[in-house]
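Morning. Coffee machine broken again, so started the prediction first thing and wrote up yesterday's gels while waiting. Chain of 471 residues, entered below exactly as on the submission form.
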Amino acid sequence: MARFLSRPLASPARHSLTLGAPAPAAGSMEPRCCCCFSSSSPPPRLLFLLLLLGTSGFFQSYAVEVDVKDASNTTCLYAKWMMRFLIKYETNSSDYKNTTLNLSSSVTHNGSVCGNDTQAALLAVQFGEGHSWSINFTKTNETYQGDFITFTYNTNDTAVFPDAKRKGPITIVVKDTMRPVQLNNVFVCHNTDFFEAENVTQIFWNVTVQAFVQNGTIGKKESRCRADTPTSAPTVPPTIANVTTASTTTLSPAPTTAPKPVENPDTGNYSLKSGNKTCLLATVGLQLNVSQDKPLLININPKTTSADGACGNTTATLKLNDGNSTLIGFTFVVKNASASVQKFYLKEVNVTLLNRLNGSVISNADNNNFSKWDAFLGSSYMCRKEQTLEINEYLQIHTFNLWIQPFLVKANKFSTAEECFADSDLNFLIPIAVGMIRLSPGELSLLRKANSLLKEMCPALFCLTLFSLLF
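Came back before lunch.
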């Protein structure tokens, strides 16, 4: 028998609705499940505000609780969590829109499986107009962990996708990054976690789950996610207190000079694979500058950041998820793809800031008009000095120790790097010629080589004098 229970999280009261379903046969391992959906009851003084926000769908996500039972009516898989989906889809006019898909108040659990030593456990839910989500768990003799997450969204749902060009169910599968959890332990993650793949960002928070429950008893010992575990160098997450929703607050333009934190961000190493081969390499320290009354600087912690994306012959995308509340996407393209000599460059950067408490989008900014970090195809681009990418007037990204190669990676190593001007030895020489001549990239490359050769042959002061005479 399947029971669906609805209750406010703040209240212990339960109201049940029993739906008819055939009971499992004796000895059958078909699970029996209880699926609960709930939302927080607001304090009276916030009721009016929440009613206003609720009309825009801002607080329309429900908590789901699934208690999967075996044939003996003993709990074998338990989960309680909240989730939301951000989806980018193509419209009939061939442009792209972003939409949010929340859990509805009607959630079913068809297909959930207890699992055993030879069969994976499966937690599956269905909701809304043809949408579904599932995760399978595998085990060893000592641990269990999430394996793959499968999400299907239906663009025939016109309330969510009013003008979708592609109609029907679309399924994506992502590898779960959940660390192995000791058997008999319950996995808990109160902070926001998310996965990004194929234009979909899956956001989770307030997660409690235990697979392969033994003797029907939920474990008392918790295994926490990375986001719940303090690090030696914690990031500064955006919260309701220091970043507000763009629709309700007007932000001030980004200041020309922003106060820097005591330390620059740590440098992270990221890579993507196509099959078994590395197709993109990136090394970079990232810092966000979010402007408001007081500028907010956020250092991205590489220890908690995961990389996703896609490689192609003329387009490559690197998506970074800091495991906290920030998603950053970099898109690289090849210009003059049909020319004999080709170069790549950074074309687009997208940044999404999430409220780590409820997974809602605080800010989303995109700039697809960049023409930076260019280098010849087959080479890499390097810039150790700080650079600034202005996403819009309210958001900037500062990069440090950048080394990037989005195409034609060989043997898992960076190819010869083309340096940015700020890193070059000519940085102290070129000001002499500023305003007198304009150097092409080829001439600048020759000048660098000449300067390097001259530095080996003569003192710096003599070289400086020589170049001043040349120009």
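The radius of gyration is 27 Å. Going to sketch it on the whiteboard this afternoon.
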